């Protein structure tokens, strides 16, 4: 739950509004408001000492109503009566409206004799104010000329009577819209609180509140709790959005929302409303930067956010001329001056000044200090104002703006947003203006540049410009769209450029084709990419061998990514033959060998793959990064081939060469590098290797990098894949393993659902924390990153299946792994990954209680490739280093799968086989899987005996030792266990090596070990005995002074 505004819940029987909690969010905690919640609890605790006053103020959407709703909830949990009222927006203003809304219903339930202590003249006054007050006919109505202070004093006396039998809580919201009588009463109660246990809390918008209301709290001499709410911090926003968005997206959402929760949700909802390219600041339903308004296109079926609806309600309260002036300002830009508004809205100067005053009073616009200019409260406000005007009027307003801005400083950039909408082919200067303006803003706002160039393209196409000019414009538009995170738009523009009747040099055309292919892959659409390469791979000019070699190698890498080893090998061999005619360059030789090694790895030809790697790895290591910057796919597939051979350190070393700063925008230049798909695949492979070898802390950071890169690409396909990866590695780190049906790894927070979505998060329906943030949907309801072919897609499917199994849904896990697409894709991955698939199928079948012959047959289908037989033990001992023909990891997983099938019928044989599996998996370095095998290898009777006597004492001592370590010491211990050096630990934790050495010395003392090896063994033994990992324990109960 975030500190955003809560919608009112209507009470139809009484026609009033009370502060309520938003549906689906009742049990979620507030984020970023710890200090405010602490002060609320303190005020509630002091209620028995006397009256307490709480003032909550801030900007619209900042969280005032939400915090008041949380106060209501906390008081109700203490069985305190809570009376809530608010001033309705745009409704009729009547005296004491908020107080009547809060108190009137309660007055009906008070016995008549309770008012005996109330003076008669006060009772007559109250009966005149509150419709439900027990009116005494014998006293007659109050005189019409009752002094105002008597009314206020009578209200205070009434509150004292209501609180005479116990504490009373009164909460009033939206007092910036309150009538004068309500404000007078509140000011009086603040200055002279009731002499009873009464808690009075009230909220209002700071900029729209009357000065009397703001000043009353400032002048009070009582103990008033003032809570001026500020925007959420970047850390709070990250905590709120959790693992469902990348860190880069979270930071951009924070920047665009300014930390305002209401605008944050509107941004997120707008981004997820898009069905294609997804990038919040660049893909939202409204502009957040720049001066160019979004095109006023219809969005059928779009659901408007609560923020947009609330802003529209604010606009309805304005006069018609003020709404017209606001619409004119929205056309001019985010920041505007008054003369421009007058021209665009066709209003005289005096009217403009008067309407701007009204807009500023309503906090629709704000004055820019030390200037004559104004700006909208937030870009979302401008968006609502802009699209709330009539489309025909808007076009005329843009035409007037374009004419008025002629001759001004930065004329071209200022006029471009208007010309893009209203320029006609008759205007010969408009295309040039749009192109020059696009070039000026392209670096900071590539999407704006793309839209302006596209407008220029529309004008030049109608005017019949040369094809070469259109070809250049299409390429420029594609580059800008790619830089803006719009891969689908960029792909479409490149395809249009390739169709232009222009004589393009072969190398340049091949470059365009490769860019288009990579964009298709980033969208998860290999079929159009394959068709395009098949069409272009044979150029009209046979002498253009270098271009054809590049296209053939691109075709080979495409086939590898799709799991087609035979087609990849054929394309690479053809490319090698062509290149040999022209003395192949080093990079071409490396790329060809990378394809051949990976193709052998996919088909299980490990001897051939090892020989190829022996030939190419020294050449790769001797080649600098600059020479291979344009070909990261070669580095990736060499690293992947080493992974297939279970050479994990070498694989990580080479995969780490495929890197880019996560803050760089992909495809900003005409030739992006490295390719975003290859970079995401390399990060996926690195995360997988780190996780399966037990280095979970580093894996979490690598998965976060993958999520950042995928987010900046704008590809829904890559983003979904990265989301599943991030959630899976978090679950692996937390030690979530299949077992009895229970909550999933995301269920530790209150209010979480137990259904897993395609993004890997706990899914629900409200679109808020605890549900599917941003509208994540289930795998069966939408195209998934796991549905395509190839190793990356299969790995994503395995991760998602394991998440379902960890979440207590073994049937859902089996559904993912045994469907026709899954079994078809299984043929396009290496034997090791196929064995991972089969072992997971067995685990899910065991958890579901449905171990069938089909499951055993599935294991036996892959077992021969790993050197095992149908017996319960390996065909021969498999100790020693990993061999090319019989990788230890695959053999260990096969043995583990068989052991799980036998555990119920032949427990002794299962334990023996599990012990053999543990040895194989440990030899391969697969620590988590080896630990699972060791657990299975312990017979049930031995497991029970180990829980008693000395073993139980050691178990308790181990837990006590871990609990006595600080958070930083536990982090250092876990990283040492994962095999990191002091320098690597310092880089991960962002501390010095000397600090790491200090923490490590403390760890040695507390765990009673002498060196790193003994520390790792001690932690492994603790994990095997059921103790949590060092970094999974809660913080010590007492502060230690360490961060």
| Biggest sheet architecture | 5 strands, parallel
Quote the average pLDDT: 79
The whole-angstrom Rg is 34 Å
CA-based shape: flat
**Highest-level CATH class of the largest domain:** Alpha Beta
Can you characterise this structure?
The chain folds into 7 domains: 8-230, Rossmann fold (3-Layer(aba) Sandwich); 235-283, no CATH class; 290-404, Arc Repressor Mutant, subunit A (Orthogonal Bundle); 420-503, no CATH class; 505-517 and 527-672, Serine Threonine Protein Phosphatase 5, Tetratricopeptide repeat; 673-735, no CATH class; 958-1032, Winged helix-like DNA-binding domain superfamily/Winged helix DNA-binding domain (Arc Repressor Mutant, subunit A), CATH 1.10.10.10. The radius of gyration is 34 Å and the shape is flat. By secondary structure, the protein is mostly helical. The strands form 4 sheets. A 5-stranded parallel sheet has the order 4-5-6-3-7, with helices on both faces. Helix 17 runs antiparallel to helix 18 (411-422). It is built from 47 helices and 12 strands. The two termini are 26 Å apart. 58% of the residues lie in helices and 5% in strands.
Provide keyphrases for this structure.
mainly alpha; 7 domains; 1043 residues; disordered N terminus; flat; three-stranded antiparallel β-sheet; five-stranded parallel β-sheet; Rossmann fold; 5% strand; Arc Repressor Mutant, subunit A
In short:
With 1043 residues, this protein is mainly alpha-helical.
């Amino acid at each position: 739950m975030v500190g955003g505004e809560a919608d009112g819940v209507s009470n139809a029987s009484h026609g009033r509004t009370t502060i309520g909690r938003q549906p689906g969010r009742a049990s979620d905690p507030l984020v970023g408001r710890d200090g405010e919640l602490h002060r609320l609890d303190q005020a509630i605790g002091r209620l028995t000492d006397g009256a307490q006053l709480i003032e909550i103020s801030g900007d619209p959407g900042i969280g005032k109503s939400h915090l008041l709703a949380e106060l209501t909830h906390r008081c109700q949990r203490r069985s305190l009566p809570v009376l809530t009222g608010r001033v309705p927006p745009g409704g009729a203003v009547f005296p004491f409206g908020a107080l009547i809304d809060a108190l009137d219903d309660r007055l009906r339930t008070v016995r008549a004799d309770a008012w005996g202590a109330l003076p008669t003249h006060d009772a007559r006054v109250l009966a005149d104010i509150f419709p439900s007050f027990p009116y005494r006919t014998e006293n007659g109505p109050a005189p019409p000329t009752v002094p105002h202070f008597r009314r206020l004093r009578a209200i205070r006396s009434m509150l004292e009577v209501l609180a005479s039998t116990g504490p009373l809580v009164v909460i009033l919201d939206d007092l910036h819209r309150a009538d004068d009588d309500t404000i007078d009463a509140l000011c009086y109660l603040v200055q002279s609180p009731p002499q009873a246990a009464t808690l009075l809390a009230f909220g209002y918008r700071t900029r729209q509140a009357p000065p009397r209301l703001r000043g009353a709290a400032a002048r009070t001499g009582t103990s008033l709790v003032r809570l001026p709410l500020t925007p959420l911090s970047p850390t709070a926003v990250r905590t709120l959005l959790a693992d469902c968005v990348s860190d880069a997206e979270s930071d951009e959402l924070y920047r665009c929302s300014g930390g305002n929760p209401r605008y944050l949700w509107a941004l997120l909802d707008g981004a997820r409303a898009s069905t294609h390219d997804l990038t919040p600041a660049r893909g939202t339903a409204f502009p957040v930067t720049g001066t160019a308004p979004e095109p006023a296109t219809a969005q059928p079926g779009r659901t408007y956010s609560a923020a947009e609806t609330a802003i529209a309600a604010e606009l309805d309260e304005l006069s018609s001329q003020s709404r017209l002036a606001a619409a004119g300002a929205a056309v001019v830009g985010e920041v505007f001056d008054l003369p421009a508004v007058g021209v665009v809205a066709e209003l005289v100067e005096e009217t403009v000044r008067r309407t701007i005053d009204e807009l500023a009073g309503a906090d629709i616009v704000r004055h820019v200090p030390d200037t004559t200019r104004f700006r909208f409260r937030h870009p979302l406000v401008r968006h609502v104002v802009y699209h709330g005007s009539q489309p025909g009027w808007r076009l005329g307003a843009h035409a007037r703006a374009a004419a008025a801005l002629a001759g001004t400083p930065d004329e071209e950039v200022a006029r471009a947003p208007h010309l893009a909408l209203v320029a006609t082919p008759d205007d010969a200067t408009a295309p040039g203006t749009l192109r020059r303006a696009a070039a000026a803003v392209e670096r900071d706002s590539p999407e704006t540049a793309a839209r302006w160039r596209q407008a220029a393209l529309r004008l030049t196409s109608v005017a019949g410009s040369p094809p070469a000019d259109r070809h250049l414009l299409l390429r420029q538009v594609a580059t800008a769209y790619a830089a803006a995170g719009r891969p689908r738009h960029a792909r479409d523009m490149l395809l249009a450029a390739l169709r232009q009747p222009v004589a393009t040099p072969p190398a340049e055309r091949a470059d365009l084709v490769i860019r288009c292919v990579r964009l298709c892959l980033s969208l998860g659409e290999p079929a159009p990419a394959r068709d395009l390469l098949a069409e272009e791979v044979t150029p009209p000019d046979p002498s253009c061998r270098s271009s054809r070699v590049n296209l053939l190698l691109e075709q080979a890498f495409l086939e590898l990514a799709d799991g087609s080893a035979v087609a990849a090998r054929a394309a690479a061999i053809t490319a090698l033959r062509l290149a040999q005619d022209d003395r192949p360059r080093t990079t071409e030789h490396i790329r060809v060998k990378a394809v051949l090694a990976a193709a052998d790895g996919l088909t299980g030809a490990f001897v051939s793959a090892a020989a190829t790697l022996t030939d190419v790895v020294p050449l790769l290591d001797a080649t600098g990064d600059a020479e291979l910057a344009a070909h990261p796919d070669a580095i990736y597939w060499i690293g992947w081939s080493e992974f297939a051979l279970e050479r994990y350190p070498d694989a990580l070393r080479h995969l780490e060469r495929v890197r880019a700063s996560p803050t760089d925008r992909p495809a900003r230049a005409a030739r992006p590098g490295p390719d975003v798909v290859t970079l995401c695949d390399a990060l996926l492979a690195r995360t997988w290797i780190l996780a399966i070898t037990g280095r979970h802390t580093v894996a979490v950071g690598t998965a976060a990098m993958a999520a950042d890169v995928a987010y900046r690409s704008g590809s829904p396909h890559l983003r979904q894949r990265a989301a599943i990866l991030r959630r899976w590695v978090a679950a692996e780190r937390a030690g979530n393993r299949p077992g009895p049906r229970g909550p999933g790894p995301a269920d530790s927070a209150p209010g979480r659902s137990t259904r897993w979505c395609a993004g890997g998060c706990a899914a629900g329906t409200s679109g808020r924390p605890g549900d599917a943030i941003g509208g994540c949907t289930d795998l069966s309801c939408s195209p998934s990153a796991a549905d395509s072919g190839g190793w990356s897609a299969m790995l994503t499917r395995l991760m998602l299946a394991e998440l379902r199994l960890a979440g207590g849904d073994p049937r859902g896990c089996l559904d993912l792994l045994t469907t026709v697409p899954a079994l078809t894709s299984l043929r396009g991955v290496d034997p090791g990954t196929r064995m991972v698939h089969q072992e997971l199928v067995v685990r899910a079948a065991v958890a579901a209680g449905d171990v069938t012959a089909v499951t055993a047959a599935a294991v036996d289908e892959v077992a021969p490739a790993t050197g095992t037989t149908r017996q319960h033990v390996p065909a021969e001992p498999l100790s020693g280093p990993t061999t090319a023909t019989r990788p230890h990891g695959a053999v260990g997983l096969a043995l583990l799968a068989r052991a799980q099938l036998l555990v119920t019928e032949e427990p002794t044989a299962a334990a023996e086989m599990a012990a053999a599996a543990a040895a194989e998996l440990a030899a391969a370095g697969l620590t988590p899987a080896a630990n699972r095998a060791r657990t299975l290898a312990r017979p049930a009777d031995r497991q029970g005996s180990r829980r008693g006597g000395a073993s139980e004492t050691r178990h308790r001592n181990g837990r006590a030792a871990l609990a006595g370590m600080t958070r930083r010491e536990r982090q250092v211990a876990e990283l040492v266990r994962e095999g990191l050096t002091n320098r690597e630990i310092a880089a991960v934790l962002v501390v010095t090596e000397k600090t790491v050495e200090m923490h490590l010395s403390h760890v040695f003392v507390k765990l009673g070990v002498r060196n790193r090896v003994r520390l790792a063994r001690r932690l492994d033994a603790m994990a095997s005995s059921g103790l949590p990992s060092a970094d999974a324990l809660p913080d010590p109960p007492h502060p230690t002074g360490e961060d």
